[in-house]
Specification:
- It is built from ten helices and six strands.
- It is mainly α.
Amino acid sequence: MHSPVVFSVLSDDRAVAETFIDSGVLSQIPAGIVHVNLATVSAGLARRVGAAHAESGVGYVAAPVFGRVPVAEAGALNILAAGEGRQINRVQPFFDVIGSRTWRLGERPEQTNIVKILGNHLIACAIQSLGEAVSLAEGAGVDSGQFVELLTSTLFPGAVYAGYGSMIAERRYQPAGFTTILGRKDLHLALDAATDHDTPLPIGQLLHAVFDQAIADGHGADDWAVIAEQQPRRPPTAKDRDRGIGQPG
């Protein structure tokens, strides 16, 4: 390994544990290397990974991000960073290339991972509420596209409502920027964290069933905005059916 800074982005706890704990790779990394982990992982694994890096003398910065691929390509990610200040300082020039702002959230890796998990939980809540609102608007004969445009131009401006609202109105769930499978994984991380801290997440419990049903219906590889299809919707059009919406799971 020749680079002084190594970035990784893996899909879940198991992949991160297998790659950086179980494999023994940390004992083979030369001194002075800093590993930047962009993965969304549980708080428990974040602590384990941080401890394993410290034991091996490898620098570690937990840095999950908010923003999809086009945002990264534009250098506009929001980077959630936790770790020793000197290690974050070392990798800040790299963050400046891919991000518009680095949020330093503490020295313990789990601090930034819990913030990322909660952010994704709130996105899921927004998708669910948008699905409910669009469903009722359609039932009342309101054009869903115009309805979403009105909401996101007035009461709820911002990338989450505008982006997911238009996807729901158009029933456009491919290509998937973030799949339903990954959404359910992050929801479970939020529910696990809630249990650890004895803090209920009632909407999270509702979403648990919604995600499970969406996946059972065959939408695991669709964008997680597809959970809106669990709401009663107008009959799918031919274009909707071409996108796989309204077909048996």
